[in-house]
Task: inverse folding
């Protein structure tokens, strides 16, 4: 194919990607959007295969077969509750591929009859740097989400100094590489140091901050692809990479806003300000009322409007199907049931929505924090399942607490609050939750799924 | 230099297009957005194929092969898992 036709083909692929993303703006058109994206990818790959520089297809075929097999197995086997770690892993693979391609292109440019130009080496350095950070950062995020590494923030003294040193080191190596593009060992060193940087950047970030990390790494994987586009002077890579980079960046910003924390704050594992606040004993002693599933079931008899507030606890106990079942039973009794979803509930943007969609919950009954809060005082029963910090009223009332100013779902304003939780242990912010001690709160201590099933049994018995 | 300028132009314009589209995506679909955009960031596969197939020297072929594997996992796995999620969203709507 001529250069002209190849580029027209790439342009069509890029348009398909944009239309595909546009399709994702509504659940009705989203499946088609995703298919359009896949068509774009197929077209781009097909065109590339006609490139006359390709002398052998065996290696390509072998790579595609191996990669496709792994991809299919992962995509089909993965449980919806494990989606955050899968997305993290895929982000990492994208980053790795970009760094590898940039490395190969750099080596090719040092061969005889080739002329490495500055744009290419700068882009290759960027690609190697961002790609390696993405790959190793994503692996650490994967390890944390999968439970292979301790999920909490791992902090040590000198952490910021170490990150700063590694950052400066990678930049210095990048400059050296641009000045000596034929010295491939500089690229190797860059990849090694950037890998260390990727690990040390994600290690201090824990638990509830994971949605920010996953979104940010998503953005990085796009930027890595865009840099590779500059290495190869390939427009479809540049366009696609910047689309993905923008998507990840927007999600990162939404997540940070939903926690009222700055990005740097999250990235350095800082929880501030830490003033004086009451100990758990002071808040809870003598005030916490525990209830049985049967008592809660009776509460529903008098309810007309119920709001279910899911958190990461629902994902851990795989309770989404039971919860949807409970909601259906309540719905049959003429009760209006809604789900109130905090933007950072779970470990990934949209985590709760995916789980509830898996359990066949119609998306119309999924309400965002902004939609539910204005009328939450008319909710008869707010049922909180495995959420803590995102419903802690201290965020509103105590300007000195670590989550001060974080927007929360105001369940404390509902007529009755029922909280399913294993114990009174604090959430990620490490502070007690006065919600648990309110007069209108009932605690249902136990595993999320088990408690919901017992409530269903009690409802059916009446 | 011309190549660089046109590349940067495309880069900046595409970022704006991305911002315009993606701010309209509802929070319900944020996870499929991530996995879907992740799948299209596997476009690096195009570069990987060129490295693996042009067989300049052994090293670039090996690097190219690895890149093809990683990028294909990303593309195939990404589109499939996104589809799996989106079908769930569509089912009841």
Result:
């Amino acid at each position: 194919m001529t250069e002209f036709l190849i580029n027209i083909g790439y342009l069509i692929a890029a348009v398909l990607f944009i239309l595909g993303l546009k399709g994702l703006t509504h659940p009705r058109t989203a499946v088609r959007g995703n298919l359009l994206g896949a068509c774009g990818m197929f077209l781009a790959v097909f065109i590339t295969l006609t490139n006359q520089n390709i002398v052998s297809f065996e290696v390509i075929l072998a790579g595609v077969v191996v990669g496709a097999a792994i991809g299919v197995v992962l995509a089909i086997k993965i449980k919806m509750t494990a989606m955050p770690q899968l997305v993290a892993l895929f982000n990492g693979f994208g980053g790795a591929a970009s760094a590898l391609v940039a490395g190969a292109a750099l080596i090719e440019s040092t061969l005889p009859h080739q002329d490495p130009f500055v744009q290419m080496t700068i882009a290759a350095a960027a690609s190697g740097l961002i790609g390696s950070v993405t790959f190793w950062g994503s692996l650490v995020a994967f390890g944390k989400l999968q439970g292979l590494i301790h999920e909490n923030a791992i902090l040590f003294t000198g952490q910021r100094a170490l990150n700063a040193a590694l950052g400066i080191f990678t930049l210095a190596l990048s400059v050296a590489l641009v000045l000596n593009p034929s010295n491939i060992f500089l690229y190797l060193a860059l990849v090694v140091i950037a890998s260390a940087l990727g690990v040390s950047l994600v290690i201090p970030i824990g638990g509830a901050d994971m949605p920010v990390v996953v979104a940010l790494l998503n953005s990085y994987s796009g930027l890595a692809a865009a840099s590779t586009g500059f290495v190869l002077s390939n427009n479809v890579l540049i366009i696609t990479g910047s689309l993905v980079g923008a998507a990840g960046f927007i999600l990162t910003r939404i997540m940070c806003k939903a926690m009222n924390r700055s990005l740097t704050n999250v990235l350095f594992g800082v929880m501030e300000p830490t003033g004086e606040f009451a100990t758990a004993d002071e808040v809870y002693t003598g005030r916490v009322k525990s209830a049985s599933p049967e008592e809660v079931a009776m509460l529903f008899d008098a309810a007309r409007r119920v709001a279910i507030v899911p958190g990461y606890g629902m994902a851990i106990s795989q309770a989404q199907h039971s919860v949807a079942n409970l909601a259906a039973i309540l719905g049959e009794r003429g009760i209006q049931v809604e789900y109130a979803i905090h933007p950072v509930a779970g470990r990934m943007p949209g985590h709760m929505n995916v789980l509830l969609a898996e359990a066949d919950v119609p998306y119309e009954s999924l309400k965002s924090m902004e939609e539910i809060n204005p009328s939450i005082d008319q909710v008869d029963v707010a049922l909180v399942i495995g959420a803590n910090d995102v419903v802690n009223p201290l965020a509103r009332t105590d300007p000195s607490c670590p989550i001060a100013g974080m927007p929360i779902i105001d369940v404390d304003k509902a007529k009755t609050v029922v909280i399913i939780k294993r114990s009174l242990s604090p959430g990620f912010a490490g502070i007690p939750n006065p919600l648990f001690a309110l007069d209108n709160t009932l605690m249902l201590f136990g595993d999320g799924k088990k408690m919901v099933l017992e409530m269903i049994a009690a409802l059916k018995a009446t | 230099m011309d190549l660089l300028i046109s590349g940067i132009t495309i880069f900046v314009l595409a970022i704006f297009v991305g911002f315009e589209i993606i701010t309209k995506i509802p929070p319900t679909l944020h996870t499929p957005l991530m996995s879907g955009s992740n799948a299209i960031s596997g476009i690096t596969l195009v570069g990987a194929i060129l490295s693996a197939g042009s067989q300049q020297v052994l090293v670039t072929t090996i690097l190219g092969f690895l890149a093809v594997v990683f990028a294909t996992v990303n593309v195939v796995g990404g589109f499939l898992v996104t589809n799996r999620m989106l079908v769930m969203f569509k089912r009841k709507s």
Chain B has a mean pLDDT of 90. Chain B touches chain A through 82 residues (CB under 8 Å). The radius of gyration of chain B is 17 Å. The first helix of chain B runs from residue 2 to 22.
